[in-house]
Amino acid sequence: MFVSKAFHVDFELLEKNLRLMIERTIPRYPEKPILVYGDLCLGLNGELKKLAEEYGLTKIDALNCVDCLLGGKGKIEEADPNHEYLFMDPGMIEFFRDGKEKMKQEGIDEEAFRELFSGIKGIILLDSLGEAEKCKAETKKLNTGLAVLETNEVGLNNLRKLLSEATNKT
Fold first, then answer.
1. Which residues of the chain, if any, have pLDDT below 50?
2. pLDDT of res. 3
3. What pLDDT was estimated at residue 4?
4. For residues 142 and 97, is the Cβ–Cβ distance under 8 A?
5. Are 87 and 80 in contact (CB under 8 A)?
């Protein structure tokens, strides 16, 4: 089950839509669905784990989508313990592209958009789909003021492994 990436900027709206999807999905499948969301997607106080427990769902063991691509279990914290880098995969690039467009419609200019990234040392590109050059070009178009420092070809195997582990728990 999936809900729009746009809900990720509003925890309340995301929870509302997740609940709707969960309540629609559970009756349709004899086995319980797996919640493919990170621990931090609804907030910093275990809200997503509580939601999974409330509905008796298995949740993947990951903090966020980037953590999923790195293998979950908090690997994002190992990769960036001081939160100094912006990890970008195709989904994040699209998220920021859409967000930038909405900000522009609300009168927020390029400089204010770039200011969102102040204090970040640079971008680590996670190529999950084998499209590194396309991702680099799309990242450059975002005009965040940050350089792509490295590109890691992560593919989707780590996500598959997390899904497999969650499936084995159901």
1. none
2. 67
3. 66
4. yes
5. yes
Q: Are the beta carbons of 119 and 127 closer than 8 angstroms?
A: no
How are strands ordered across the β-sheet holding 85-88?
85-88, 122-127, 148-153
pTM: 0.87
For the chain, what's the residue count? 170
Distance between first and last Cα of the chain: 16
Q: What is the DSSP code string of 125-151?
A: EEESSS-HHHHHHHHHHH--S--EEEE
Backbone angles phi, psi at 57, to 5 degrees: -95, 150
Contact 139, 86 (CB under 8 A): no
Can you read off the two tokens belonging to residue 66?
A: 């980037």
Which residue in 40, 154, 33 sits closest to 88, CA to CA? 154
Give the Cα separation of 9 and 21 in Å (integer).
18
124: enclosing H helix or E strand: strand 122-127
pLDDT confidence of residue 33:
87
Residues 6+ apart with CB under 8 A from 131: 90
Task: Write the DSSP string, 68-106.
Answer: HHHTSTTHHHHH-TT--EEEE-HHHHHHHHHHHHHHHHT
